[in-house]
Amino acid sequence: MPSYPKHLKTGSECPPLKENQLRLYSMQFCPYAQRAKLVLAAKNIPYEEINIDLVDKPEWYLKKNAPGQVPGLEWIDHDSKESKFIPESLIVSDYLDETNSQNRLQPTDPYLKAQHRVLIDRYSSITTAFYKIMRGDPKEGVADLNKNLKPYEEALTNTFFGGSKPAMIDYMLWPWIERFPLLSEAGFEFNSDGKFPKLAAWINAMEANEAVQKVKVPTETVKKFMEGYKQGKPQYDFE
Known about the structure:
Domain GST C-terminal: 109-225
Mean pLDDT: 95
InterPro entries: Glutathione-S-Trfase_C-like, Glutathione-S-Trfase_C_sf, Glutathione_S-Trfase, Glutathione_S-Trfase_N, GST_omega, GST_Omega/HSP26, Thioredoxin-like_sf
Number of helices: 10
GO molecular function: glutathione dehydrogenase (ascorbate) activity; glutathione transferase activity; methylarsonate reductase activity
Strand content: 5-15%
Largest sheet: 5 strands, mixed
CATH architecture of the largest domain: 3-Layer(aba) Sandwich
CATH class of the largest domain: Alpha Beta
CATH superfamily of the largest domain: Glutaredoxin
Shape: globular
Number of domains: 2
EC number: 1.20.4.2, 1.8.5.1, 2.5.1.18
Helix content: 40-55%
CATH topology of the largest domain: Glutaredoxin
């Protein structure tokens, strides 16, 4: 549960940052923020969550992060007592993994780590197709999504991309896959032709993962958000 459940917006005040407390700036429905939350959950790192209204962004947050995107990670440095801030989901996730030695998520082998990073970097082909479907071009988007899923089906050689248990790559890919059921009304049914059996098994394994379950937002709530998002009027807070 976020420390401030409501999404803060223009005119709000930045909650005071406490020493020895890690803060994540987030948005309840943002898949990029979910990446960081999955890493935090997988590594059992305590943190404070502050949700940001991404349409009506607080002035104080724009001073910390000019693009106004989430996630953002902030803390008070133990030695200098100055606040530190890191943006971008991949950078935040890598930092969390490198600074918390328990349950390391990145491979120790440099070549395997590079292979994983290639798949993560090329994942934009999946996210682009996903949003193409969501924003009203379902026919081309569905074709693109099915085409761009093939390399990921071929890359799976174990239960997870990381092997017998999830690694960083699994958590970085997951948020959009979790949202695939939202595309059914637009005509996309994952694995309807049976061409992605390994990815289908991976999805089942990920859904059973403790970190995934811990940060998942109920599908019905996400559907409500996406209805407003598609109309250009996203609603962030639901009673």
